[in-house]
Amino acid sequence: MKQFLLNEFGDSLGNKIYNMQQRKLQTILGLTVGKSNSQLRTLEKTILPRIALYKVLEMELGEQKKAYSLVEKYMFTIVGQKINKQYSAFEFIPGFFYIFRKIMISTINKSDNWITEVVKNDNTSVKYNITKCLWYDACKENDCPELCKIFCDTDHIIYSSMKKIKFIRTGTLGTGNKCCDFCFLNKRKIIEK
Prior knowledge:
This protein has 193 residues and is α+β, with helices and mostly antiparallel strands. It has helices at 2-31, 37-61, 64-89, 96-110, 134-141, 148-159, 187-192, and strands at 114-121, 125-133, 165-168, 180-186. The protein has a four-stranded antiparallel β-sheet. The longest helix is centred in the first third of the chain and has 30 residues, at 2-31. The chain starts with a helix and ends with a helix.
């Protein structure tokens, strides 16, 4: 994040915004209550740093639209691209879809970051609906529900360019739907049909 801010604003303002973001993050963490230890780890490492950045950019730039655009740029070009490269690097492994869906199902079943219903899980697809989401809740709790759309849209950056998986989603909690519907199709099985 710091390097992104230095690139966007130069050394002086970039460092100032980063330091403000770090202080804001600590303030938000101090006000966060009613979360499990695993939720607190996710909040501290993944969600709240971006919320703190958004809040600081809003205050420093005096314009919500500009702050939103910068956080979106950070999430899409830095965070989303990094995770996409990590997943894509393993696509060469035989049976990648099997491994991918096992990891996804294991992650959503073991974590209390979501309340999830698995709709389908076989060699052609893995589909699940999230009806409660820590990212959505954190954005609402920190008075920036609009920011959740960026988190949701980053999923498209992460999954949409993969060669062996087709990612489909029709809605998210962050965009006003009753759930986040995730669908990952095994492209090899689609071609075979």
